[in-house]
Amino acid sequence: MQDDDDEEENPPLAVQIHQIDESSIPQDTVGVTVITGYLGSGKSTLINFILSAQHGKKIAVILNEFGEEIGVERAMINEGDGGALVEEWVELANGCVCCTVKHSLVQALEQLIQRKERLDHILLETTGLADPAPLASILWLDDQLESAVRLDSIVTVTDAKNLRLQLNEHRDSSTFPEAFLQIAFADMIILNKVDLVSQDESDPMVSDILEDLEKELRNINSLAKIIRSVRCQVDLCNILDYRAYDAKHVAHLEGLLKESQSVSSRHDSSVRTFCICEQKQVDINKVKLWLEDILWEKKYNMDVYRCKGVLAVHNSDQLHTIQAVREIYEIVPARRWKQEENQMNRIVFIGKASDSDYRHLSIFTVEILMRTFSGIPSMSVLHQHGKKSIFNGREVEKIVPMCLPLVLSVT
Ligand SMILES: Nc1nc2c(ncn2[C@@H]2O[C@H](COP(=O)(O)OP(=O)(O)OP(=O)(O)O)[C@@H](O)[C@H]2O)c(=O)[nH]1
């Protein structure tokens, strides 16, 4: 590989998005749904289902088929009933966002957008071997595209019959991290092929299997919505216009963040969810520094794939949202706090760390929180959910659970 290429293959530069005036974002942006999932899980089945459904939308599809014989990708536009089928070709390498790939994707999207008056949504199917994050980063941030397309959501299709096997095979996630990454980055997880688990869903054994699979998925990513399906026949409200990254649709995010606290702990997967709850208003600049330490400097040994959260910001009546995909993050005001509302900060990280790193992270987090959250003269107790109390973060004897709601009591 050439030096230049190496440079291009590096992760995107860390970019902080400054507060956006939401009113300046055009409302007619075209949503892009990234569809990812393990080989054979049902991605194409989902796309075919969407294209053939009666939703009245005109949808473009960019396919990133990747294989030795194929090695090419195609973009198709389904112009709906009576519309012509237009094909374009897009070169996307296997999950790596080198300059060429980025350029090709941006070019393909630009071509599609030029037809915007006839286009309602874009589906981007990644190869079953891809890490969806680089694509998501391009879509979320690309300057050329920012005003014309928006990342709507990342949908991960999983195969109910083979999921456990696939995850167990790659349990340490170093041999094939993509299997975990695809789940970790998802906003929506389709647990497909439930018919192969059994024909009879009313059978308690079968619901146990499916529930266990859902638990397994939640252990990796407690923020994603999970829906079961046969042949990806899902309610398309969950796919088209889901707006997972849209601060204006904060109610959904808040619901997810609340639910994510109740996830049980588990220690055998290195990709997991980590939650922080804090009641005091925070200093937004300190939170940014803290977040940059974690996301950019990789301090505390945590490799964060995804972060979502809501913040109660000091000197602001607005609930702010945090979204991060890898190194890229944004903190934006989303809505006014209601008077009776409990202004609680909730931040959820989905990432990878060894058990001992988690222990360190918990200690570091306490230290970070002590210097991050404003107006905290001293912190008396850190209550670690379901475990023993920790004083000033110094006493962490057990492995930190997968989901760690931290509650700081302040005196
Ligand atoms: N029984 C059953 N088969 C399914 C279901 N969904 C998809 N399939 C079948 O599974 C196979 C793989 O589905 P695809 O949609 O091609 O999967 P994919 O993820 O696009 O596959 P790759 O592009 O190779 O990664 C096909 O034969 C589908 O017909 C389902 O819910 N139940």
From TrEMBL:
Domain (CobW/HypB/UreG nucleotide-binding) ranges: 32-216
Pfam families for this protein: cobW, CobW_C
Record domain CobW C-terminal: where: 271-356
Family annotation (CDD domains): CobW-like
Presence of keyword Zinc: yes
One GO CC term, this protein: cytoplasm
Keyword Chaperone listed: yes
GO molecular function, one term: GTP binding
Taxonomy, superkingdom: Eukaryota
Keywords: Chaperone, GTP-binding, Hydrolase, Nucleotide-binding, Zinc
Catalytic activity: GTP + H2O = GDP + phosphate + H(+)
Family stated for the protein in its record: Belongs to the SIMIBI class G3E GTPase family. ZNG1 subfamily.
Entries under PANTHER family matching the protein: COBW-RELATED, ZINC-REGULATED GTPASE METALLOPROTEIN ACTIVATOR 1A-RELATED
Protein name, as recorded: CobW/HypB/UreG domain-containing protein
Organism: Cinnamomum micranthum f. kanehirae
